[in-house]
Amino acid sequence: RGLSVHPRQSGHGEDDAVVPISTTDKFIKKINNSFSRVDLTYLRFAKEGHGYTRPETQDKITEVLIKLLKP
After folding, report:
1. I need a labelling partner for 52 at 20 to 30 A (CA). Which of 17, 24, 39, 58 fits?
2. Is 13 strand, coil or helix?
3. Residues 23/16, Cβ–Cβ less than 8 Å
4. Any bridge partners for residue 51, and if so which?
5. Partners of 45 in the beta sheet?
6. SS3 28
7. What residues in the chain have per-residue pLDDT under 70?
8. 24 phi and psi, to 5 degrees?
């Protein structure tokens, strides 16, 4: 029985003052180096902080999530 691969999405605002983006960068790098069967989409958003307030950012997240949830 093989391992199933479930797509994952992670995003981070480049101007986040609460959680530095370098923290997420390191986390993503560890995942990519440790798990060869992870389908991970990592989105970095310019001009976003801790939360996504720009309509274009929200549209991009929605677009990616719809693709990930399609059977």
Report:
1. 39
2. strand
3. no
4. 49
5. 13
6. helix
7. 1-6, 36-37
8. -70, -40
